[in-house]
Each structure stands twice: as structure tokens, then as C-alpha cells.
Design a protein that fits this description.
24 strands, 9 helices, alpha+beta, single chain, 14-stranded antiparallel beta sheet
Length: 485
């Protein structure tokens, strides 16, 4: 196995389950149960973030469910590596494996695994490239899922200098592997945090170091003396990263966030009506209505969206709405710069002497779509977009929203899904302007109104708004019900 594969597999199998409280005295209390709850981690190479991972442990009637997911894209020694994984393991009270389900995509090649531990070994069903096959892996004694490897020895009372050997299910190689884990000792990490340092020999010739805090949480993991570092982070930071990354359509999370459909949508720009259902939308997320969209939550927990888009004709004059009620959609905010002199000047230049609101919106939409080139970049301010002339969909939408508000058009920033022919649904940002009713505008694609392949999930662009979007990334599955042209 190459060094490159070793590094990527280390990350994607997500060995992030934590150790117990450990004191290096003669008597060491054993952990009776794994830590329940969620943990988030960033994956970094040098100063560049190349992915994330997420771990969740919940208690069941006779053991625990361990769920892990993650996405990473990195370049090592001139080779690019992309990996996405979602893994669910059911284990006994002692963390020994009972059954598992794994979906992983390595460099664009998807594979699904399902299996259970029997008296004869591990029965595994493998689906890859349209083929399905079964095999039985030999295993003697307890077998651990990857996320439990580092936790298990400490539940057994591991001591410094006394290696512990465990059997692990290798989900990429589809085999049983022996791993040696050794406690190094207690250390103080930057910031004065006490940590327990240990190493494993998961991959030959590569040092795999892990540090855990006194509460039993993984603080940091390091491969090859810091070549790849996995660092704990809070849920809010992880949510902001995921939301920004999916809207920027960054490669490191694109496969993870892509929502494929059972029936392709041939020409979304020509759709008159699209009816589609999604599973995986939490009940805490409100279903947004209007601007050609209707959402209904069904009895089975899924959500049905009906999108009907028709050419729009202005229904109101500039003075026909309550300015007080629409004040929030005319004001500046941290990332919508409606009162900036440069933005006001550019809006005045684009609009000229035009007074008709619909034509003003058309002018602004076309100007942003034709002037600002698409780019896979981090989020930036409208002024940066104006000066650079390039940006991602958020950059287009924020600049348009700033210009429209500066021109006196109530406008809001929205995000959700857009259908990309040949791929599926991607996360995307656009805007809605009020012209007697809310009208969806896409300044990235120059659409007024947007096509029926746009599904709004969030209104607003604050970190709190974006956190709602992050809550559904990687969890949605779609089924096309009807499409009319």
C-alpha cells in the first residue's frame, strides 16, 4: 500500500472515537462506556484545510451505534486523492462489532458494504460498479469497527509501555487487520491542555499519533509528523465551513454534498413544473414557500416540493409597498453593502434613467451575470467581487442583493439547491426581489425568474442562517415525482 493511500485511508476511516479519563497511576479506572454525543474535526495539510469529519455515538438497547462521515481531497507527492465516506456500525457494550453499513467513494469510484458478524466470521455484501458479491472474512475473537480501535484498549485498562493488539475491520480493503496501539504518556499541548498521547501502527512506516484530553475527547491526530493533521473543532465552526464549502462548490466536499436523482431532469431551463420529494430534511427546518415554490411535509417524514415558474410581469409601482415592512430588505448588513458609496455608484451607473422596477432588476441581473465570472473561491464581500470581477454563487448573489437594495428594490439573499444537468442537485445561492410579490432571481446564471430546478431552503446569509443549510448537507435523497415542459 502506497504512502499516499495510507494517508488518505487514515483520514477517511475516521479513527476519532475517544479514550477514557486516564491517570498514569498504579490503578487506572476503566471506562465503562464510550462517550455519547457528536464530535467534529477539520482535516488539514499545512495551512490548507482539505476536509472534515463528523462522529456521532448513541446508545442502543444492547450496545451502541457509531456513525461517522467525512470528505477529503488532498495532494500528496504529486498525486490527488479524493474520498467520501458514510459509515454506521452497531456494536456490543464492549464495542465488538455486530453489523455495519458503509458507503464510500474513492477517487470517483463508489462502493457499498453491508455485513454482520456471525459464528463463522464476518459476512459481507459488496456492491461496486453495478456488481454485487458476498464474501466471508475470517476473524478470531473480538472484531472492532475502525472508529472504536483507539478507544477499546483504554476500556481494558491500558498502561504506558504495554502495547495492546486489536482486530479491526478494514472497510476499504474489505479485510480483517491487526492493529497495535501503545500509550506514550501524558503531555501538555499548546494552550495548556493536558492530553494523553498514543500511537498505532495502522500503516507501516507511517507514524500515527493521537492526543486526547482528560474528558476523553480527541483533540488532535497527526500522520507523518504533521503532514496531515485532524483537529477537533466546535459544531458552529464546522457548520460554517460546510455551508461555505458546498455553496462554493469546492471539490473537497462536492461528492459528499451532491444529491443524485432517480430520474434525470433533461432541460431544467424549459421546465414548466417540477414535483420532487426529499428525505432527510429535519422537522426543525421550516419549509419555505412562495416565488414559485410550495413545500409540504408528508406522513412518511419526506418533503415534497412543487416548483412552477411562469414569466413575470410587474404588478406594483415603486411606491406600492409598505417601506417600513420591507426595510430589512433595503438595509445594509455585514455582507450586504447597500449603503457603500462604490456600490451605490455602480447601481446608479447600471440602472441609468430606468424607473420600471422589473427592468431595473433585469439590468442588474444581466450585469452581474455577464460581468462577474464564475470561480471556485472562498466567500468574499461584494466590494471584492466588484473589484475582482469573479466569485462563486454567493459572491454573485451578495453583489446583486447589494446593488438591488442600493437601487431601492427590496431584495433578500437565499440558498438551497439547483439542478445541474448530468450530475444532480448542488447547493447554490441566488436572490429574491420584491416586485409586488417575491420573484426569484439568479445573478449567477442570469435568470429572471429562476428555472424550476431551484429549491429554496434558507433565507438570509448570516452564519445562523447558513447553519440551517449545513444541517442537511450529506443527508438528502431525492425522488422526481413529475416534470412538465
Amino acid at each position: 500500500m502506497s504512502l499516499y493511500r495510507q494517508l488518505s485511508l487514515f483520514i477517511i476511516t475516521l479513527f476519532l472515537v475517544v479514550s477514557p479519563l486516564l491517570s498514569f497511576a498504579a490503578s487506572i479506572p476503566r471506562l465503562s462506556a464510550p462517550p455519547i454525543g457528536e464530535r467534529w474535526y477539520s482535516v488539514n495539510m499545512g495551512d490548507e484545510r482539505v476536509g472534515f469529519s463528523h462522529l456521532k455515538i448513541t446508545e442502543t438497547a444492547d450496545g451502541y451505534e457509531i456513525f461517522s462521515e467525512g470528505s477529503v481531497k488532498m495532494l500528496v507527492m504529486g498525486f490527488s486523492r479524493e474520498a467520501v465516506a458514510r459509515e454506521t456500525y452497531l456494536v456490543n457494550k464492549d464495542l465488538s462489532l455486530k453489523s455495519f453499513s458503509v458507503e464510500q467513494t474513492i477517487d470517483g469510484s463508489p462502493m457499498k458494504l453491508k455485513g454482520e458478524v456471525t459464528g463463522k466470521g464476518v459476512k459481507v455484501v459488496i456492491e461496486s460498479a453495478g456488481n454485487k458479491k458476498e464474501k466471508t472474512l475470517k476473524a478470531k475473537g473480538k472484531l472492532l469497527p475502525p472508529p472504536a480501535v483507539n478507544l477499546y484498549p483504554f476500556m481494558q485498562g491500558a498502561m504506558p509501555g504495554k502495547p495492546c493488539r486489536v482486530q479491526m475491520l478494514d472497510v476499504e480493503g474489505v479485510k480483517v487487520k491487526e492493529v497495535k496501539i501503545q500509550v506514550i504518556g501524558e503531555e501538555i499541548l499548546p494552550g495548556g491542555v493536558k492530553a494523553i498521547h498514543f500511537q498505532n501502527d495502522l500503516y507501516t512506516f507511517v507514524d500515527n499519533d493521537v492526543w486526547l484530553d482528560a474528558a476523553g475527547n480527541t483533540i488532535k491526530e497527526s500522520v507523518r509528523d504533521g503532514l496531515v493533521v485532524t483537529q477537533a473543532e466546535d459544531a458552529q465552526s464546522a457548520g460554517r465551513f460546510i455551508a461555505e464549502a458546498v455553496l462554493a462548490k469546492k471539490d473537497l466536499i462536492l461528492d459528499f454534498s451532491l444529491i443524485k436523482v432517480d430520474t434525470p431532469i433533461k432541460n431544467p431551463g424549459e421546465l414548466k413544473k417540477l414535483e420532487i420529494s426529499f428525505s432527510g430534511i429535519p422537522t426543525a427546518i421550516p419549509l419555505l414557500q412562495g416565488a414559485g415554490q410550495k413545500g409540504d411535509r408528508l406522513a412518511d417524514g419526506s418533503v415534497r416540493f412543487t416548483l412552477e415558474i411562469a414569466p413575470y410581469k410587474a404588478k406594483a409601482s415603486p411606491a406600492a409597498y409598505d417601506k417600513t415592512a420591507f426595510a430589512p430588505y433595503l438595509e445594509s448588513s455585514a455582507r450586504i453593502l447597500a449603503d457603500n458609496p462604490e456600490i451605490i455608484s455602480k447601481a446608479t451607473e447600471i440602472v441609468g434613467a430606468e424607473k420600471d422596477q422589473l427592468k431595473i432588476v433585469e439590468k442588474l441581473t444581466n450585469w452581474v451575470a455577464t460581468t462577474v465570472k464564475g470561480a471556485v473561491t472562498d466567500s468574499q464581500s461584494p466590494l471584492e467581487t466588484l473589484k475582482k470581477g469573479s466569485g462563486n454563487c454567493q459572491s454573485h448573489a451578495r453583489l446583486y442583493t447589494s446593488l438591488a437594495r442600493a437601487a431601492g428594490i427590496p431584495t433578500r439573499f437565499v440558498s438551497g439547491l439547483v439542478y445541474a444537468p448530468g450530475q444532480g442537485f448542488l447547493y447554490h445561492s441566488w436572490a429574491e426581489s420584491y416586485l409586488g410579490e417575491w420573484v426569484a432571481v439568479d445573478p449567477t446564471f442570469g435568470q429572471l425568474p429562476v428555472d424550476a430546478g431551484h429549491i429554496k431552503l434558507v433565507e438570509g446569509d448570516s452564519p445562523e442562517d447558513m447553519s440551517l443549510l449545513a444541517g442537511v448537507v450529506g443527508k438528502l435523497k431525492a425522488r422526481v415525482i413529475e416534470q412538465k415542459y
